[in-house]
Amino acid sequence: MAETPAEPTRRDFLLHAAGAFGVVGVAAAAWPFIDQMNPDASTRALAAVEVDIAGVEPGQAITIMWRGKPVVIRNRTEKEVEEGKAVKLEDLKDPLARNANADANADATDANRAAAGKENILVMTKVCTHLGCIPLDESGEFGGWFCPCHGSVYDTAGRIRKGPAPENLPIPPYAFLTDTKIRIG
Amino acid sequence: MSGHSTYVPKTALGKWFEARLPVVRLLHDTAVSYPTPRNLNALWTFGGILSAMLVVQIVTGIVLAMHYAADSRVAFQSVEGIMRDVNWGWLIRYLHSNGASMFFIAVYIHIFRGLYYGSYKAPREILWILGVIIYLLMMAAGFMGYVLPWGQMSFWGATVITNFFTAIPIIGQPIQTLLIGGFSVDNATLNRFFSLHYLIPFLIAGVVVLHIWALHVAGQNNPLGIDVKSDKDTVPFTPYATSKDVLWIVLFMIFYGWFVFYQPNFLGHPDNYIEANPLATPAHIVPEWYFLPFYAILRAIDFNIGPIDAKLGGVLAMFGAIAVLAFLPWLDTSKVRSGNFRPIFRVAFWVFAVNALFLGYLGSVKTDDIILGMQAVRWAQLSTAYYFAYFLIILPLLGYIEKPKPLPLSINDAILAKSAAGSAH
Amino acid sequence: MTAKMIRWAAAAIGLGIALSTSFAAAEETATEFPLLKPTRQEWSFAGFFGQYDQAQLQRGYHIYKEVCSSCHSMKLVKFRNLADEGGPGFTEEQVKALAAEFTIMDGPNDEGEMFERPRLPSDPFPSPYPNDKAASFSNGGAIPPDLSLIAKARAVHRGFPQFVFDMFWPYQEQGPDYIASLLTGYQDPPPEGVEVPEGTYYNPHFMNGISLRMPPPIDDDLLEYTDGTPQTKEQYAKDVAAFLMWAAEPHLDARKALGLKVMLYLIVFAGILYFAKRQVWRGVPH
Asked: Which domains does chain B have, with CATH numbers?
């Protein structure tokens, strides 16, 4: 081997090439094993649900499941809307609307929380932003929602007012298909 | 492990670790500096291939278990959910189901390599018996895994195989009821099979560690079957054996990929795409291909032997065909290991190999099919007779009547002689 | 001397076994079903580069819906699958419309009542009978099998030695070949001297006997094709068989496409490793 000084270089090159090739292959092969943990096609297919709210009178609410989480659709009374509008922005713990259908920086005004053009309709994911419990309807000192786990209190627009939760209840993407039919997701 | 340790920790951290847990030294001695005979051929890479397949099966299996539901009402649908809806589920499931077959192809090559080169002989008896235990565990894992999709073959295969136990007089029936957790194969059976199917691969991994440990105590056998005499006979495991092992693992993956991507259902049975139905037995029940030789032996015994009826006789013959492997180190009386130096053994071995394939074929046909003017079951009886005669008559006698060819003095001598002959041309 | 005898004996046994296996297939008896082996067809999805033909799958769905679905369920296939990549390639809107042609029992609603609603893309294909008992009762004791996996659950035994050749030249289209042969294989009247049980139809391509309870389902010009494809029985059978293959193996396109990449990678990798191994062993006689 001593008389052919090119040999070690070639050997090193081949070993490095083989090593690099192997690493790339293993990395590529790893992807299916990671991606399989993502939601499967049947779960993704249910990512949109359609709800008929024709029968929901003012002061009533229905709760449906969307992506395994409860989504509440509330037909708010005039009083509730008034209370929501009366709150000053500086009194809010979380000043952002948290509305997937609005701008990410939108203020948490009552109008930005309610459905566009239908100020009485409030659609939101009923999962406490503290640690994921389900808040109770029509309870708490602000007349909205109250989370029994750690005492977070939300107002009539689902905004956090008191307690450990950091954010307003999130509003999922949705659209009105007809006047009384909502598609969530 | 055998006084060859050449590991010297270089860094401060390495030294600190070495003084507390010499695991790096263990790996170094096992997979780097371990002296391996220079003359190993490609058949010796199948140990590495099998290790790779064990890893593939465990990884794909753990992933499949994340999506599978071991409940007889939904098991079939959950497997189809994997095939249709889970991201890459079809790939992972086909890798696993074909991987089982690849595992058995590799283990059969590994076993027949051992049989031909006398790798079971002293001082490797324990090594061999550990291998037989791994093989048994693989069969249990393969059988239980085949039940999980809960198709027609799953269900009826489980029914037939657990019925083996009813062949045992008096206590057979209660044992079978205990094993399947009911009076027929049902949800309870499926659940326990799933639990055991998940457990067994880890038992296999444990026995593989012992198998490799025993290998490193005795050292590897080689195509000449003679002991390593000096350092000239060996090369370090890395890079020499490693470079060969990795090459052959990748070549084996090409073979594996051929099945997974282009004929994923070739080794399976179409009836397993029909959900289990306890009211209808498929017209022709066959086990997975890797059990077929033993299935042929089971069905070959269609006659009573004294007080032993045909049913018990078949089950005994089938288990005996596996058990006899464990006694092989003492049944073969020859002092010479490698078949290369044993002219008569070599013929008997190749007939044994062809006979084993033929038994596999016989396991796949109906017993009353006519082959060359004779019923398949009669052929199976002849083949079974040769199977046992090979172990119980031919190998014990050959040691006395056979005159082996002269052995080379050392591996190095043989290699030098070979390269001298090669350069003369 | 002994050695020589044993060698001869062994060689004779070996030869006998080799001969017996090679002739085994020729010895088949007349009672083997099916009486006629399936006819091999050309399939767009066969071979290493094979992919489904979208137009054919769409035609196949049409036949399935108009003909098969009146007796056969297809529980594992969802309407959304019709829009999946590697499938018939309907658009999301088309799928919504196709799904809405059927209803499904849902509920209970707020009053605790079950109600019917149009199917959504996430719902499975409809089943014609509420349960197996009803299916059996309506079909003279035979349950029309679910079609979700039928193309993979039916394969006529190839026998030795073909199955060995199949290993090296894949033949994974046995299901569709069988289905297409069965659908076009009815003979009415049956050949002379053949007694066909009451309520069954003679078909030499059927794998479990001489006749089956399913009446001949298709005939020439039964359905209209708008794309100019010939409206023959053979073409209908082929199209629906292709559709059933897709239903049983919806990821075939992805599998073959990925297979090509993986195999190319492995072959190049093996080549590099081969030369690396040669370099490592250079100068070390072995």
From this structure: 1-33 (no CATH), 34-424 (1.20.810.10)
ipTM of predicted complex: 0.92
Position C27 scores a pLDDT of 44
Mean pLDDT value of segment C269-273: 97
Question: Which DSSP category does C191 fall into?
Answer: P
**What three-state secondary structure class fits C72?**
coil
| Sheet order of strands, A153-155 included | A143-146, A153-155, A160-162
pLDDT of residue C14: 53
Residues in chain B closer than 8 A to A36 (CB atoms):
63, 66-67, 86-89, 92
Q: Above 70 in pLDDT, residue A8?
A: no
Judge whether residue A10 has pLDDT over 50: yes
**Residue found under tokens 């989480």:** A69
Bridge partners, A118 (sequence order): A115
User: How large is the C-alpha radius of gyration of chain B?
Assistant: 24
CB C255 within 8 A of CB B91: yes
Give partners of C (≥3 CB pairs < 8 A). A, B
The pLDDT of residue A12 is above 90: no
User: What's the pTM value of the predicted model, to 2 decimals?
Assistant: 0.90
Question: Could you say which of B63, B85, B92 has the minimum Cβ distance to residue A42?
Answer: B85
Beta strand extents in chain C (DSSP E only): 103-106, 115-118, 201-202, 211-212
Whether the ω angle into residue C250 lies within 30 degrees of 0, i.e. cis, is: no
DSSP assignment of B178-232 equals HHHTSSSS-HHHHHHHHHHHHHHHHHHHHHHHHHHHHHHHH----TT-PPP-SGG
Per-residue pLDDT for A3 more than 80? no
Q: What are phi and psi of B234, to 5 degrees?
A: -125, 165
**Alpha-carbon distances, residue B310 vs B260, B297, B313 (angstroms):** 40, 12, 5
